[in-house]
Design brief:
260 residues, TIM Barrel, globular, 10 helices, alpha/beta, single chain
Amino acid sequence: MSKLRLIPKLQLKPASYNSNKLVLVVTKQFDNIIEIGDPVSQSKIFQDQVSDELIFINIDSKNRQEISLLAKIISEVSEEIFMPLTVGGGVTSIEDFRLLLNNGADKISINSAAISNPDLIRIAAEKFGSQCVVVSIDYKKDENNKYFVYTNGGLNKTSYDPIEWALIAQRYGAGELLLTSISHDGMKNGLDLYITNEVSKAVNIPVITSGGCGLAKDFSDGFKIGKASAVAAGSFFAHRDQNFMQTRSQIYNSGVNIRK
């Protein structure tokens, strides 16, 4: 059985003091954005703490220039660390895939563009391999208490529920899925274990779940109850005195087959 993965998720956006610079941020429910530091230096810390891999997402990709900024950051990070990098945010074309891959990314995450043009999943999988294509699924309950997928940073509701869209993404060639509960994001109240488990059961590709980790137990629950292949977190590692290695040890001691 392959080892389960624990992944820091580094969210990026243009700095308030310099729109040509991407900085590390944390969010609550995709809002209440707080700038917390430099992504390159934080990446080096996670390398020292033996992270399995890293996820970088530009959460505020409003123009084409920001793909170039993202590529620049990834190039800088890849010169300093040696672990798999998943990169996304504003990716809309095969040219974006190629740019980020050429600058050090190992996998590319697509979200809104995959919804509007599912063929992008297929074409990218054919050109670069399915293992390179990660479909990111942001979701929450609507006013009728039903789950739906949302795009454009949680602003636009789609017609898909997350399980339905996960199956479609897999059929088009996605090699991995990244689930994020908008309602749980940054709240430290635990993962959405129901959707994590339902998607994990429905597909036969790896599922990363994220949004809501506040305790080491939340990670363990994501693996044990949610049946995820990986659990990702951002705010948890940014705001806790407990470091990545301590969290990994606690998860391992709970009986999860994670790298010690």
